[in-house]
Automatic annotation (TrEMBL):
<dbReference type="GO" id="GO:0006351">
    <property type="term" value="P:DNA-templated transcription"/>
</dbReference>
<dbReference type="InterPro" id="IPR036388">
    <property type="entry name" value="WH-like_DNA-bd_sf"/>
</dbReference>
<dbReference type="InterPro" id="IPR036390">
    <property type="entry name" value="WH_DNA-bd_sf"/>
</dbReference>
<feature type="domain" description="HTH lysR-type">
    <location>
        <begin position="1"/>
        <end position="53"/>
    </location>
</feature>
<protein>
    <submittedName>
        <fullName>DNA-binding transcriptional LysR family regulator</fullName>
    </submittedName>
</protein>
<keyword id="KW-0805">Transcription regulation</keyword>
<comment type="similarity">
    <text>Belongs to the LysR transcriptional regulatory family.</text>
</comment>
<dbReference type="InterPro" id="IPR000847">
    <property type="entry name" value="LysR_HTH_N"/>
</dbReference>
<dbReference type="Pfam" id="PF03466">
    <property type="entry name" value="LysR_substrate"/>
</dbReference>
<dbReference type="InterPro" id="IPR005119">
    <property type="entry name" value="LysR_subst-bd"/>
</dbReference>
<dbReference type="InterPro" id="IPR058163">
    <property type="entry name" value="LysR-type_TF_proteobact-type"/>
</dbReference>
<keyword id="KW-0238">DNA-binding</keyword>
<dbReference type="Pfam" id="PF00126">
    <property type="entry name" value="HTH_1"/>
</dbReference>
<dbReference type="GO" id="GO:0043565">
    <property type="term" value="F:sequence-specific DNA binding"/>
</dbReference>
<dbReference type="GO" id="GO:0003700">
    <property type="term" value="F:DNA-binding transcription factor activity"/>
</dbReference>
<keyword id="KW-0804">Transcription</keyword>
Amino acid sequence: MSMFLAVAEERSFTRAAARLGVSQSALSHSVRRLEAKLGLRLLTRTTRSVAPTEAGERLIETLRPAFEEIEATLASLTELRERPAGTIRITTSEHAARSVLWPAVSRLTAENPDIRVEIDVQSGLTDIVAQRFDAGVRLGERLEQDMIAMRVGPRLRMATVASPGYLARFARPETPDDLAGHACINLRMVSGSVYAWEFERGGREVRVKVEGQLVMNDVALIVEAAAAGHGIAHLVEDRVAPLLGDGSLVRVLEDWCEPFDGYYLYYPSRRQPSPAFALLLEALRYRD
């Protein structure tokens, strides 16, 4: 049943086999044996995908919470050990991983050699229950309502920046609307859409779709392009702080970049924290 659940969640025998550390043939044999025992087809298989049937969906609804309860119980048994142990899987964005998560995980694993942490960096939102993550780290404004959330970082701020050479050639924008006359370096999101630049001043929020020659899906390249004078960029402030410090980049529209909610760790409300997970919560908790 655990093998069937893995295939159903991954929608792939290949990915499920990799996740479980078994061969695809063993996985396929186990699922067929379960289907034969029930006398029902649980998965619809094509050359390109695998999807649960109606019977499979009903079985998943029962199995998923049951296995989660079993895993929580097994994790709680580590309380009987002298040292906390176990594996914690976390999904997060690249910026959150580097600025908030990794510093805490580095300390945690150094002090607790029996705790393993898997960090999965993804730009898009992830269903942590379906993907079997223990927790996620995302911006506070993007959290789901049925999750427990804990603040793990300070408030953030955007910075609209350009090189001194670029601003010597073109008039400095005074409002977000002025960006229409500028070469702006766009960010392509993992969803495929282009990020609309967000501004706020005095309670007024503005979203601007900017234009320019360059569209990139890598923030480091956007910073490099802006510093080289190719146009204006709009990024989280700490991404460009070193270049602002040495004068390679200059801020514009600073009064339109107000602070906003930073990163939160979130996890299912029904989860009972294991000793290892409780240590992670303590390591990540943000204190003003």
